[in-house]
Amino acid sequence: MRPATVSSVRREVERGAIAPVYYLTGDADVLKEEFTGWVIASVLSPAARDFNLDIRNAGDLDPAGLHTLIETLPVFAERRVVVIKGLEQWRPSAKTWEVLARYLERPSQTTVLVLLHGAGEEPDGRLVRAAVHLDFAVPGAEAVREWVAERAERQGLAMEPEALEHLVRAVGPDLARLRTELDKLAAAYGAAGPVGEAQVAQLIGVHRGQTIDDWVEAVVRRDWPWALALTDVVLPQAGVTAVRMVMALGTELIGLRLARALADGGATGPRLERAILEHLRRIRPAGVRNWATQARAWATVAAQWSGPALARAIRATYQADRALKATTVSDDRATLRTLVLSLAAMEQAA
Question: I need a surface site. Which of 2, 232, 240, 338 has the fewest CB within 10 A?
Answer without folding.
Answer: 2
